[in-house]
Design brief:
The protein is of the alpha+beta class and 263 residues long. The chain has 3 domains: 7-59, Structural Genomics Hypothetical 15.5 Kd Protein In mrcA-pckA Intergenic Region, Chain A; 63-134 and 216-243, 2-Layer Sandwich (Alpha-Beta Plaits); 136-210, Alpha-Beta Plaits (2-Layer Sandwich). Helices cover 20% and strands 26% of the residues. It has 7 helices and 17 strands. The chain has helices at residues 9-15, 21-29, 92-95, 122-129, 149-157, 190-196, 228-236; strands at 7-8, 33-35, 38-39, 46-47, 53-55, 58-59, 68-73, 103-105, 113-119, 137-143, 159-161, 164-166, 170-175, 178-183, 202-210, 213-214, 223-225. The strands form 4 sheets. Strands 7, 8, 9, 10, 13, 14, 15, 16 and 17 form a 9-stranded mixed beta sheet that branches. The protein has a 4-stranded antiparallel beta sheet with strand order 3-2-5-6. Helix 1 crosses helix 2 (21-29). The longest helix has 9 residues, at 21-29. The chain is elongated, with a radius of gyration of 22 Å.
Length: 263
């Protein structure tokens, strides 16, 4: 009989700081979760506060203290709980200080640097990653060769690459090989695929902002706690521009042609 305080198993796990709800669904499907000693492989299974839940043999307990961290991830760190190839994990930069079980909100590619959040609050993570929220994520892109100005215009209008449509909410050329891009959809490897579609190789992708939170003041490899007003603004879907500056738009100089020398 279902009890009044019953919730979905993946929600129970997320609230305990195991991972995001979506990731917890994967753990359940992989057979890594038990309820009252029995393996459960169906996400959405209801559990009550009286049920004992274990993950990889460890009891799942609600975290009493909620943690919200902003990390400046260096390139060459992986956003994952584990890696069979032994690559360094972004979470390892926090584990020496943070005692609570935490997980990353969204992700950054292995070679992408910049701002990423870690938390043990599953509801917070779900609110930020739900597609309907359209949380702004701002990137500085550096390329190996010159960026065509028309790419920025097409990216703003929306373009299709290998059957997938990509659209930026802001795309500003800030130099011959640099651009400032704001995305809200968070599709996999979006920037690299868009730039490669016009044969432009990316040298570096650096995320400088998520919603109201700027990377300003956080040294690479270091982190800070999110402030209460930042957490509220993220959940409310608002932006605070107190640290933000609009990028200076670059215009490629027009060719004047060859003129004869006057005597």
């Amino acid at each position: 009989m279902e009890q009044n305080d019953s919730i979905r198993l993946q929600l129970r796990m997320a609230r305990a700081g195991i991972a995001s709800r979506r990731r917890c669904e994967t753990y359940i499907s992989e057979g890594r979760v038990k309820v009252n000693g029995k393996v459960v492989i169906t996400p959405g299974t209801k559990v009550s506060s009286d049920d004992e839940v274990t993950f990889d043999g460890h009891t799942v307990r609600d975290e009493k203290r909620k943690v919200y961290l902003a990390l400046h991830k260096p390139s060459g760190f992986l956003c994952s709980d584990e890696d069979p190839d032994g690559r360094p994990l972004a979470k390892s930069l926090l584990d020496v200080v943070v005692k609570e079980r935490i997980f990353h909100v969204g992700r950054l590619d292995y070679m992408t640097s910049g701002l990423i959040f870690f938390t043990n609050d599953g509801d917070f993570a779900r609110a930020l990653t739900h597609p309907s929220r359209k949380v702004e994520k701002e990137y500085v892109v550096t390329t190996k060769n010159e960026i065509p100005e028309e790419l920025m215009e097409r990216f703003l209008r929306g373009l299709t690459v290998e059957g997938i449509r990509y659209k930026a909410s802001q795309a500003v050329l800030t130099g011959p090989r640099t651009a400032n891009i704001v995305l809200t959809e968070g599709k996999n490897r979006e920037l690299r695929r868009v730039f490669l579609s016009v044969a432009v190789s990316i040298k570096k992708v650096h995320r400088v902002r998520i919603g109201p939170v700027s990377l300003k003041g956080i040294v690479s490899g270091h982190f800070r706690n999110l402030k209460d007003f930042e957490i509220k603004a993220l959940l409310d879907g608002t932006r605070d521009d107190r640290d933000g500056k609009k990028p200076t738009q670059y215009r490629r100089p027009q060719s004047r042609g060859n003129y004869g020398r006057r005597n």
